[in-house]
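Please think about what follows:
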Amino acid sequence: MTNTGRFTLPSEENFAEETKRLAQLWGADAIRNSDGTHLDEAVERLGKKIYSAYFPTRAHNEWISLHMDETPQVYLLTNRVLATGKTVDVPLMAGFYAEQLQPNRDADPHVYWEVIDRTTGEIVDVSHWHYDPITDIVHIEHVEEMHEYTVSFLAYIIWDPVEMYNHLTNDWGDKEHEIPFDIYNPATRDFVFRTFEDWLKNNPQTDVVRFTTFFYQFTLIFDQRHREKIVDWFGCACTVSPQALDDFEEQYGYRLRPEDFVDEGCYNSTFRIPRKAQRDWIEFLTTFVRANVKRLVDDTHAAGKEAMMFLGDQWIGTEPYMDGFEELGLDAVVGSVGDGTTLRMIADIPGVKYTEGRFLPYFFPDTFYEGNDPSIEGLDNWRKARRAILRSPIDRMGYGGYLSLAAKFPKFVDTVTGIANEFRDIHERTGGKPAEGELNVALLNSWGKMRSWMAFTVAHALPNQQTYSYYGILEALSGMRVNVRFISFDDVLEHGIDPSIDVIINAGPARTSFSGGDIWQNPRLVATIRRWVREGGAFIGVGQPSATNWQGRFFQLADIFGVDQEVFQTLSVDKYWPQPETDNFIIEDLPDGVEAANLGEPILNTYPINEQVHVLKASNGSVQLAANEYGAGRGVYISGLPYSATNARLLERALFYASRNEDRYAEWSSTNLECEVAYFPERKTYCVINNTDQPQRTQVQRADGGVDEFDLAPSAIAWQQL
């Protein structure tokens, strides 16, 4: 087994000897600097590939402090203020962090701002309000008593949100705040490219320019107590400026409102059903960003270096799954690996030469402190990622943060040694090829391919009570023996359903981009899916799939699922339930039975639409799991699917059942659901992984009918040559 390569090590100043030792121990062939650090010359002489983090739009206060009207801007929505008389005052910065944000006092507020009566939704005429730049208060006259009012205003971002987060997390004290800048301004754009040209000349030792990232930060706004107030990893809120708005109007023929950005306080969350204005702005922004990214990449290549994009921080405007991403010419994409879903989000990106994952934990003092054992998180992160690597391998791995912290924890150092060697061994044994997928599964939502592996996410890989019942679907699929794609409602309406698809999944809360909302009132969409299922297709709904109030139904595909939801409109119509079943392929091998399965946040008052439906689990008068025959096809309903070994097995069996492939299920399946199997026919080999920190025993049935037995140590992987 090769014990060197495919590994990037973070380093810092005055740490050369330990860097050398850990580079040898972990088999690093590349070394990178972390935020706020530089590499010693002794480290650069180790003969490793050198990554240099490069921030195109920050870390140059000497420029931007003289041009503070060229920082990025964001539309913010004030708190709602109740009118108790004929006038009302709305303070702009109440609830916002003044060290991060500052109202734009330069552009005409009556052109670029908006005051709204939130009780009626009407725009307040500009003649009825004025802004006091001394107090940052908007005074509104001729208001309606007991109505609530808000102001949508432009604000400058005067402290880079990521550097601010690092600053506060690491207690950098009096370190100067890094001010971001916006390349939409021609003078700043010229400065960015001139500065980068000089940097390339002055850094001949750099082999890979690790752009962190490019120009526009995802939405990350803090409150007056330095806490996150608005965080949306996909948010485009921090991308606006008066000039960009004017240019948009010229190109698209209509003017965007402030409301198109603040969106009633939702800030165009990815859960919102995307509207024309939002889609047009993403297209406008992406076109601008990509043109300038291409220029940076070309300059990098001309200097004989590789260009790597970090999928995070200022990644907005790149959208790696939108058509044309490959035209940027990037050599690589690197991203943070929080679990199997985020691993796939990186690994599946098309159009780059290689992909790299930055594994957790990050070498920060919030994890590396006396008394803590970071190896626990390290192994947990590796087990989650490994399932996905076997299905869609990244080419390289590494860590981030401050190596001097990690070096103080010998057990963690040994753990990473084992992980790095196992990662390289997987590549050697598989040739970097993915394991075989047995079914083709498509997730159907408003975003489709553009947000592949990005559904149900609020903040990058962080748990959320309202979404874990859906995010678990992605996490289960990320390491499952299926091929996964993402399709949109528009895809189905324009092109029909690809005949290679075996199963479609529609999942999410009602009235969201993931469930679909009113798109399900389109008769052509519903008819297309019904015809496909009746002719042998398979459709799985999770949560409130196809949900919209229409023609007396809430789930518009209730006839496929066999389940609908009572939304208190048909309480006078009796519902009769079939007896719940205990014998069905979907629940056949759940060790503690279906009653022990945690099927997520309850979807209240879901009921079978007839007595032919196979109800497999119900709780408190609501269906949680059901199967339904539909012509030559099948439908399955699941109330929710938080990630667990049990739920991953349940979903896998549901996929094979719905597509009528039960006879293919046993081959290359583990009898122990805590273990999973990955089969590589070209290499005539397969492996079994233990996804827990406890010993596990399992059996695997081969394609020839033979059975292999395995005793696996905690977190272990075992290989079998055929």
Residues 276-302 form the longest helix (27 residues). The longest strand covers residues 148-157. The radius of gyration is 27 Å. The chain has a mean pLDDT of 96.
